[in-house]
Amino acid sequence: MEPAEETISPWSNAKIVGGKEAPGYVTFTFDDGPDLKSTPEILSVLERFEVPATFFVVGRHFAKPNDTAKAGAELLRDMERRGFVIGNHTSNHQHLPSLSTKAARAAIDGNAADLAKVLGHPVHLFRPPFGATSGPIRRMLRKGGKTTVRWNIDSQDFVRAQRKGIAERVLREILSKGGGVVLLHDTKSWTARMLPGLFEDLEKANCERLENGQGPILPVSLHYFLRDRNGTPRRIPSEVLKVTQKSYDRLTDQCTKDI
Predict the structure, then answer these.
(1) Is 35 a catalytic residue?
(2) Residue 4 domain-assigned?
(3) Beta-bridge partner residues of 219
(4) How many CA atoms lie within 13 A of 2 on its CB side?
(5) Which of 68, 82, 151, 228 has CB atoms 3.0–4.6 Å from 181's, for a disulfide?
(6) Is this prediction's pTM over 0.90?
(7) pLDDT tens digits, one per residue of 90-100
(8) Given 89, 124, 185, 223, the catalytic residue
């Protein structure tokens, strides 16, 4: 698939996302995939609960000349067709500050080029592996129109020993911080297994908030967290607003049934 001619993207050239930009909203992000087994399981859960998500993907899973990578590329196309957002997580999950400037640029731009070839359009969202950057790397990203996405809720699901407490930990952080950007990994089978419980518990907590006269903490698209470089909130597309309204209506209907 040839990349389409570049147009102005709603994702490009925004201020670094930290997670505190949109109180009352939470957005779920997944790193390191796509994984041919656990990513589809996670997609099914997200669709069942109507939760938007962004996936920051690594080139080695979809850009090599082998059957596994070809299947990974087709999975990426399917994810986007189903409404999920794709971001760049470098070609091989490199620790960027440890690399030369030339090598860091290759890790970022090489994956961007591979993504454009697979998806047919440029990808402007970027998450540095380990969250690690440097002054030169940040300047490189800004010059290239990339939007860096960090997080303020770390599930620690990459730590095998922590896998049994992920849902409780994430929910506690969402409620205590009033929302934010959640970091998860779609390469972990236990993450796929714990998601239904997390979303069910978040729904219950939101019903309690509504009953107590508080606003819910709604799962939304990353659009809600984007700001221009001067701090002005980005316009949220009408189709995204409709999805959020549908999510709110679904929540209030469910809460009414539970009374």
Answers:
(1) no
(2) no
(3) 26
(4) 2
(5) 151
(6) yes
(7) 999 999 999 99
(8) 185
